[in-house]
Amino acid sequence: MSTTLSRLISALVILLFSAAPLFAESIYVEKDNARFRSGPGTNYQILWESPRYTPLEYLAKYKGWYAARDHDGDVAWVSDQVIGKGAAAIVTNKKANIRKGPGTNTRIVFFVEKGYLFKVTDEKNGWLKVKAPDGDEGWVLAKLVWVSK
Length: 149
Known about the structure:
The protein is mostly beta strands. It folds into two domains: 3-86, SH3 type barrels (Roll), CATH 2.30.30.40; 89-147, Roll (SH3 type barrels). Helix content is 9%, strand content 47%. Residues 17-23 have low confidence and may be disordered.
């Protein structure tokens, strides 16, 4: 998506919802292939699609639609029917080791590359317990990922 379009959508969201939410929700894509649109409704243009466990930054909600920002800073609207509440993460480092426990002294269970998506299920001392789409679980160092806000 173009930077200009993203900025325009961001400005519209700010104008429409200038009051901050009373509480922030952490949200992520819970269903496969969520469609992100230029406005809050199916009659608006589809800007992109995102897979399950894509982390998002909650901006606003309007009649069953969330205005959200992704880890690249792009802003769009997505139906609440495909959104889960809670945290998800995307690997922003070139590579991340997924470990048996929260610490570098625990065994590496598997590793993933930049762009890999997880659901976050726990947090401990700068480490996140994560669940991959295929069900594999482990711990990742929090500074290697971008997490839902």
